[in-house]
Amino acid sequence: MVGTIKTERLILRKWKEKDAEILYGLACDPDIGKGAGWLPHKDTDYSRAIIRTLLMDDGEYAITLKEDPESPIGSIGVRIGSSPKRGIDREDEAEIGYWLGKNYWGKGYATEALTELVRYSFVEVGLSRIWCGFFDGNERSRNVIERSGLKFHHRNEHLFNAMLKEYYNETMMCVTAQEYFFRK
Questions:
Q1: Are 71 and 64 spatial neighbours (Cβ–Cβ below 8 Å)?
Q2: Using CA atoms, how far apart are residues 147 and 142, in angstroms rounded to an integer?
Q3: Neighbours of 143 (CB within 10 A)
């Protein structure tokens, strides 16, 4: 995956350790973590560790505004490969996950980032299907995913999130490469 992807208003770039303070400021909000399936960040050191261990992986991007590319407003990532527990069976498929800081909700940034990463995954990487899921009650995410061209595929029910120590249900949405290119 490339290091930088640009859209009309956004730059998706690789995470840097120096982003830890900004990441903490966004990810300490309990509403952000709960919607994405993780605990709120407890301090800047924890955020730095998350950058080092997860967000520096290939396919992970800090979402930034073009006018301020040094300040992340959220995160988006594409994980290529199967995940049978989630209903993703093939190695040439991928799941995209994303979140935005609460101050950036309702401005179309998540839809713009997700739509571009879907395009990139099909056009530049050559994947066969893109998946994205949302938890019950997260209607904002459902709307973003639908606006980005993904459709309902199945539900995963009564899954356990060990980090949050709770059960959850999620709806899995997807679009195939054939569907994506056919509608263009």
A1: yes
A2: 9
A3: 13
